[in-house]
Write a structure and sequence with these properties.
This protein is α+β, with helices and mostly antiparallel strands. It is 56% helix and 12% strand. The protein has one domain. The chain has a three-stranded antiparallel β-sheet with strand order 1-3-2. β2 and β3 form a beta hairpin. The protein is globular, with a radius of gyration of 15 Å. This is AlpA family phage regulatory protein.
């Protein structure tokens, strides 16, 4: 029972973990320039300004963004 609580807590915390822009690009398998283009065109996930020179995205937001991009394949 105690172990289950820790697993649930870990999953909740992982959703708020912040990925840097470069980590986000690597995680999703595209180049930095593709990531910049998605961000510029407003087609990426909602980013958070970490500092004046850094942005990041939470794992939860990345999951929501990926889910919104899912398409059905033609059979």
């Amino acid at each position: 029972m105690l172990r289950e609580r820790f697993v649930t807590d870990d999953l909740a915390l992982s959703d708020i973990r912040m990925l840097s822009f470069d980590e986000w690009c690597r995680l999703n398998g595209f180049s930095r320039s593709t990531g910049q283009r998605l961000l510029r065109d407003g087609k990426g996930p909602q980013f958070v300004r970490i500092s004046t020179r850094r942005i990041g995205v939470t794992i939860g937001e990345n999951r929501r963004w990926l889910a919104s991009r899912m398409t059905e394949t033609a059979a």
